Amino acid sequence: MMMLKKQVPVLAFIAAFNLLMFPCVFSQKKLTTIIVDAGHGGSRDPGASGQYEGSLRSKEKDITLDIAMKLVAELRKRLPDVKTIPTRTTDIYQNPKEKADIANQNGGQLFLCIHADSGPLKTGKRQIGEREETRYRITYKKVKKKKVKVSTPYTVTVPVYEYYKLPLTRKGTSVWIFAPHKTSDKLKAIMDNAEDFEIETDNADSSYVAFSFNTPEGKALADIYQKRFQERSDKLASLVNEEVEKTGREALGINQRQTGIWVLQATNMPAILVETGFINNPDDERYLNSEKGQQELAEVIAAAVVRYKKQVESLNKTAALTTDSKPVLQEKKEIQKFDSRTTKEQKVLQVKSNKLRVQLYDDGEIDNDIVSVYFNNKSIVESKSLNANGYIFNLDLVEGKTNELVLYADNLGTIPPNTALMIITDGSTRHELRLSADLKSNASVRFEIIK
Ligand SMILES: [Zn+2]
After folding, report:
1. Ligand 1 centroid vs 31 CA: distance in angstroms?
2. What would the pLDDT profile of 40-55 be if each residue is shown by its tens digit?
3. 284: CA distance to ligand 1 center in Å?
4. Do residues 323 and 235 touch, judged by C-beta distance below 8 A?
5. pLDDT at position 284, please?
6. Residue 161: what pLDDT?
7. CA of 428 to the centre of ligand 1 (A)
8. 66 Cα: distance to centroid of ligand 1 (angstroms)
9. What is the 193 CA–ligand 1 centroid distance (Å)?
10. How many other CB atoms are found less than 10 A from the CB of residue 383?
11. 370 CA to middle of ligand 1, Å?
């Protein structure tokens, strides 16, 4: 019985191991087809609309179409060899299934969904005038031993109010990916399309192998394939977020959702949804409706796709994902740098927001401590000398990742050990954290998102 119990995991393991044998299994030889979806459409599905006082009353479906068309043009310009296919080019209604079908049937390898965000609006109240109002003072008097009610009219001046919708203060661009789990629709989409599905092996150009998913091994493979989609989607989402940051507009980071992004989960390819801005924020609404804003967003997304394509295609050779444009070798060396030491101090900090601001100071006396900081295995601060002014950086926590920050001491300063004070701003909450590292060990903090 013991032996039997072990059989299934062994099978799965063999399937997974086969994947590892071919580092470029499931990798794209070349990214050749991109689908651009303008969210919503038609009179049936206008999406969000500008509703605050002074709003342009714009509709999400128009903004998404304008940006999507500019993105299509930008991608065709930057990637002339790639087929870029829009789901719609006019104001028509398509249900999510139709959109997903267009993507799947055209053999899309990347699905970009363009939306604009909104949120509940608060109602404001203000006085616009006064009016006279008649009220009555009630008194009682006795008439023939009976209590009789007497009302005496009098006039008061009362304010007249007007109610209006307040604009959102929240603004910026966020990127959404679908967070898969084993029984997800995305896996089902892969299984349903199994006969079209190809696995690329390492050794030859013509080595596409059809694969059956109706076996335990096949299921394990499909699961790994699905995870690969997730990794890719996450990768592209990070790149879009980085490109938004470069514009100076607010980059709200990467978010995951398990449900409610039907069109993302039903596409058989890596997929992201960009909430380009908030239609009910005055700055964002004007930006989203402007030629300049739309073009900037198109360029931001196109630049991220170009970087993504480069990284995904070079994956064939390196089988590694890098989160920035640094050469892979350098990245590997960095990881080894902190991997070569033990981590003696491990803290866990619970945070509410997945976007954190970190200020890093030398704790105690300033003694020229030099530190490096890694987040999710990626170098974010490199050999920085800490001083009284501190060093500020942002962290985008990603649900499903470890979200671990490692402090590495490049020296001990003049007063060992190397101690850093971190002030972490988490929405409106401030956390203070002291981490101490030396030449043998690192310190780490893992962030847990509590919602
Ligand atoms: Zn939308």
Report:
1. 26
2. 999 999 999 999 999 9
3. 15
4. yes
5. 97
6. 95
7. 28
8. 14
9. 27
10. 11
11. 46
Quote the pLDDT of residue 345.
67
* Cβ-contact 396, 354 below 8 angstroms: yes
> How many whole angstroms from 46 Cα to the centroid of ligand 1?
9
Confidence at residue 342, expressed as pLDDT on a 0 to 100 scale: 79
Q: Tell me the CA distances in angstroms from 152 to 132, 144, 160, one per residue in order.
A: 16, 21, 24
Distance, CA 64 to ligand 1 centroid (Å)? 8
**Beta sheet of 342-351, edge-to-edge order:** 342-351, 441-449, 404-409, 370-375, 378-385
- CA of residue 172 to ligand 1 center, whole Å: 15
**Do residues 223 and 215 touch, judged by C-beta distance below 8 A?**
no
Give 435's contacts (C-beta < 8 A, 6+ positions apart). Answer: 345, 347, 407, 419, 420, 422, 443, 444, 445
Q: How far is the CA of 450 from the centre of ligand 1 (A)?
A: 26
CB 423 within 8 A of CB 391: no
Task: Evaluate whether 409 touches 360 at the Cβ level (below 8 Å).
Answer: no
Residues in the chain with pLDDT values less than 50: 1-27, 182-184, 194-211, 319-334
Helix axes 291-318, 216-247, angle to 10 degrees: 140
What is the amino acid identity at position 162? E
Give the pLDDT of residue 73: 98
